[in-house]
Structures are given as C-alpha cells and as structure tokens.
Amino acid sequence: MHSRFSKIIAISVFSMCVPLCAGATETTPTQAIDRYFEAVSHKNIDAVLSVFDEDAVISTAAGEYRGRDAIAGFYQKGIFQCGRFRPNPGPRYLWENHIAVEVGLDCDGKIKKVGDFFTVENGKITKLSVYSGPGYVPPKITRK
C-alpha cells in the first residue's frame, strides 16, 4: 500500500511539474528583447530574424513589414546601411507580454530618438511598432 501511494504522489508531482518546469526554460519577453538589441547592435540579420515570429509585423511611419523576408529587407535596406550603427535602449517598461523602450539610434554619429513597442508571444517578437519624433525621417525602403 505504501509503495502504491508513493507512486501516485510521484506521478502527481511529475504531472504538475511538466507544464511548470517546461515554462521555466521559455524565453521571457525581456530576454527576447535583450537578444533583439544584441543582434541589431551587431547587424546580424540571422540573429535578428531568429527573435521574430515567422508572421511578425513591424509597423513604422514608412509602412508595414510582415513576415521574415519583409523584416530582413527593412533592416538590410534601412538601418543596417549605416556605417556605424548602435542602438542605445533606455529603460524597458513591461506590461504582461508588451515592452516599451525609448531608443537612441546612433547612425554614423547622428542620434535619433525612437519609441519601440514590442509584443512578445512564446518567446518571439510578434509585433514591433516604431514611433519617431519630429525631424526623424525613416530610411526609404524599396519593397518588392
């Protein structure tokens, strides 16, 4: 009887732990955004795309870019054209799976402030909305 009771307890504990323990290894929204800024800082397009969901959307004043191919074009034909490019993210404001960050973008010594608003689901960025202040002209991007 003692042995059977122990097995039931062990199975119950294991079945409760599986969803909880599995969640412990998932990428948090903050970790996803940290990986994003690290990848963008190094102009590593493969690393940038790895943090985006395959159906992700970037919305800017210049337009909307849906899916990894369009997102790759947004970076490669846009900010990655800067000779020296360095984002300087400020504090992150987290609300559930949404993160807002004010970013100083250094493109060849010219600093522009933008607001990045991320939505992260299952460890991947599903939406990035970029807002820019007066005087900021987003790079012209030719879409296919």
Topology:
Blueprint: H1 2-24, H2 29-41, H3 45-50, E1 52-60, E2 63-66, H4 68-76, E3 85-95, E4 98-107, E5 110-121, E6 124-132
Shape label: globular
User: Could you describe the largest sheet, including whether it forms a barrel?
Assistant: 6 strands, mixed
**What is the succession of H and E elements?**
HHHEEHEEEE
Helix content: 25-40%
Give the rounded overall mean pLDDT.
Answer: 83
Supply the number of helical segments. Answer: 4
Low-pLDDT stretches: 5-23
Q: Tell me the fraction of residues in β-strands, as a range.
A: 35-45%
Instruction: Provide the gyration radius in Å.
Output: 20 Å
Distance between the termini: 70 Å
Q: State the strand order across the main sheet.
A: 2-1-6-5-4-3
Based on secondary structure, the structural category is alpha+beta
Walk me through what this model shows.
There is one protein chain. The protein has helices at 2-24, 29-41, 45-50, 68-76, and strands at residues 52-60, 63-66, 85-95, 98-107, 110-121, 124-132. The protein has 144 residues and is an alpha+beta fold. A 6-stranded mixed sheet has the order 2-1-6-5-4-3. A hairpin with a 2-residue loop joins strand 4 (98-107) and strand 5 (110-121). The radius of gyration is 20 Å and the shape is globular. The relative contact order is 0.17. Mean pLDDT is 83; it is low at 5-23.
